[in-house]
Amino acid sequence: MKNLLIISILTYLFFTINSSTANESLTKNDLDNEKVLKIGVLLPLSGEFKNIGQSFLKAIQLALHDISDENIKIYPRDSKANALDSYRAAKEFEKNKIKIVIGPIFHESLERLGDVSNITFISFSNKIKKIPDNTIAFGININSQINVLQNHFDKLKLDKTLLLTVKEEFINQIKVVEDSKIKFSKVFFYNTSPKKITGEIQNLTNYQERKKDLERRIKILEKSDLYKDKKEIKNLEQKHTLGQVNFDSVFILDFGERLKSVLTSFMFSDVSSKKIKFFTLNQWFDETLFTEAALQNLYFPSINQKNLKKYEKKYLKTYNKQPNKVSILAYDALGLIYYCWSKNDKKFSQSQLFSKDGFKGLHGEFYIKGNISHQKLKIYKIYKKKFIEIN
């Protein structure tokens, strides 16, 4: 009965806050009340990205319910995932004297928000270039990921790493990666066509030459009658190539099907993850990665998986549907604002967000410096259709 009540309350909130006329009449008194923590919410609540926006909104409502303080009020507005509508909503927040806003989600929506300088926006963009001064990039950014990967590379003593990516799509991330202390022996930009990737990886790994080395070795051994040579032939016949590659690890800056294509191409090129370490960026625990044998032992940085599972379980129980995984950041964003407000005699101050002590949310530990959230991430690997945390 209690769960049903929670769902009913949240459903009621969802429908009323998306009605502009209902929202104005409901919040007028609250907007004039200085004791109330007023939080703007700027998300795509209509259009192509409506489902993402609604999942983030539900995450914020879930945090609101868990905090259970009647002096917190949220005021959602539709960003429509574009800069103009985000700016219009921001001006409305400004008119209503709202000082802190959760959102928007997409980097493209930030373009004009710098003009609304008396509001702080907690955006979920993971891009760290061209962020307005009044905006905090709260997404899982490349800097945080490289920091934890760099420590892991040092621990494993890897010093011959290949960096593979698509230049046009990841040009800003490439700069951060190359400026890190990870020792890259080669940077390779591959073609976006899956049909061409395998050939490029074979050339990169010297596959044809290693295959010929195997054939030449077998031919030499076939001339011998020695038992040890015949035994070696049997072992070689189980292989596809002979000889080692000139790298000890591979870092692939990519996602989705292209990532799968690149890793499969390494497998077809007879480069085993048992001998070579493969790394990529945060994959948000995408279980479709389990379907590819080539993705076994793939390492990546990410947030606290145990807490993510707890969050997903609570969200499912409340809304009877799975959340967008990234929406856990929206849950933490509300918690962050509330914590700062409650610790500052129930007055919101932007400076509280930049505490040197940092914070601990569901997604993990973090601190905000400049206008970037720096997260303390963990390393995971794919093993036997599970995500295993690496200490």
Description of the structure:
This protein has helices at residues 2-17, 20-31, 50-67, 83-95, 142-156, 171-178, 194-204, 207-222, 227-236, 256-268, 305-319, 328-342, and strands at residues 37-43, 72-78, 100-102, 120-123, 135-137, 161-165, 184-189, 249-253, 277-280, 298-302, 359-361, 364-369, 372-376, 378-382, 387-390. The protein has 391 residues and is α/β, with parallel strands linked by helices. Strand 11 and strand 12 (364-369) form a beta hairpin. Helix 1 packs across helix 3 (50-67), helix 7 packs across helix 10 and helix 8 (207-222) packs antiparallel against helix 9. The protein starts with a helix and ends with a strand. 37% of the residues are buried.
Q: Give the rounded overall mean pLDDT.
A: 88
Main sheet: which strands, in order across? 7-6-8-9-10-14-15
Structural class of the helices, strands and pairings?
alpha/beta
**Whole-number total of structural domains:** 2
Low-confidence stretches: 1-27
CATH topology of the largest domain: Rossmann fold
Number of strands: 15
CATH class of the largest domain: Alpha Beta
β-strand percent reads 15-25%
Question: What best-fitting shape do the alpha-carbon axes yield?
Answer: elongated
Number of helices: 12
- Output the CATH homologous superfamily of the largest domain: Response regulator
Radius of gyration: 26 Å
Helix content: 40-55%
Note the main attributes of this structure.
single chain, 391 residues, alpha/beta, Rossmann fold, seven-stranded mixed sheet, five-stranded parallel sheet
